[in-house]
Amino acid sequence: MVLGSPVGAVVAATDPSATRAFLTSLGAVTDRSRGLVDVVPGEGSWSREALAGGPAALDFYARSVATMPHVTVSLGPLVMHQARVTGPDGLPVVLIDANHRRPSLLDTTDLPVSEAHSMVWVVPSVEETLAFLTAAGLSLVFDAPIASDEVCSLVGLPPGTPVRMAMVSDEALTPMRLELLEAPGVTPWDGVVRAGMVWPLFRSSAVDLPWLSVEEVAPGVHRCVAPGGLLAELRG
After folding, report:
1. 67: which residues sit within 8 A by CB, 6+ positions away?
2. What range defines the domain where residue 93 resides?
3. Could you tell me which of 8, 123, 133, 139 has the C-alpha nearest to residue 56?
4. Which pLDDT does position 7 carry in this prediction?
5. In whole angstroms, what is the distance from residue 15 CA to residue 53 CA?
6. Secondary structure letter of residue 151 according to DSSP
7. Collapsing DSSP states into helix, strand and coil, what is residue 74?
8. Sign of CA dihedral 98, 101, 107, 111
9. Residue 3: inside a domain
10. Is the pLDDT confidence value at 115 over 80?
C-alpha cells in the first residue's frame, strides 16, 4: 500500500492565526495525529465559482447544529443535518450532525465537534481520479449518484446539478476520508494555490506515483496533482 487515508488537511491562509481562531471558535479539534488541520501561510483569495473544480468543503462531525442555519440531507436511512460556515479567506467548512457517524473522536469524548473527518474535492471525472487513488492503495467506501439541492448548496454547485459522489479511505475508515464529487460541466482545478483553499495531507513519500505534477515546497514536503486536478500534500 502506498497511500492510506489522509491524516488530515492543509489550509492556506493570509492570516494563519485568524484561521486557527475561527476553527477553535467552532469547537473543532485540529491538533490530532489523525484528522489534523495544518494552517500554512497563503496569498490571494479563494472563491470557487460554480462548476469549477477544487476544494468544496472541509467536514467535521458535530453533536448538534440545531442552533445554526442548516439543511437536511437524507441518503436512505442516513440523515444528516449539515451547516455550512465560511472561514477567513473563504475557507469552506461543513459541520455534520448525523444519525449514524463513521468512526471519529466523538465516539470516545464529550467534545462538541470532531477532528476533521473528511474533505470534499470537485473533479470533472470521478472515474479518472478514483482509478488513480485506488491503484495507489485507497479503498472505495461509497460511490453513488446523488440528486439533492441541499448537497449542491453545501458544496457551492448550482441547484439541480446531478452529482456523483465517491468516498475513499483505508479499510478501517480512519479519518480523514476523501470525497470526490463529479458534476456535468466541471472544469479541473486551475492549479493555483490560494488562501482559503484546503487539500488532503498524506503521510507518504510516494512522489513516484503517476501524478500530473510534483512540487517540493519544503524538504520532504511535496504538493502533487492527481488526475482530475486533485491537489494532495505528501509528507514523508
Report:
1. none
2. 8-235
3. 123
4. 96
5. 24
6. H
7. strand
8. negative
9. no
10. yes
Q: For residue 84, is it within any domain?
A: yes
What is residue 49's predicted lDDT score, i.e. its pLDDT? 85
Whether 77 has a pLDDT exceeding 80, the answer reads yes
Would the pLDDT of 236 be above 80?
Answer: yes
| CA distance linking residue 205 with residue 29, whole number of Å | 26
Handedness of CA 171, 112, 64, 60 (dihedral sign): negative
The model's pTM is 0.94
Q: Quote the number of domains for the chain.
A: 1
3-state secondary structure of 137: coil
Per DSSP, the three-state class of 35 is coil
Q: Give the pLDDT band of residue 1 (cuts 50, 70, 90).
A: low
Judge residue 187's burial from the number of C-beta atoms within 10 Å of its C-beta, 0-12 exposed, 13-18 middle, 19 or more buried. middle
CATH, residue 70? 3.10.180.10
| Residue 1 resides in a domain | no
C-alpha cell at position 183:
458534476
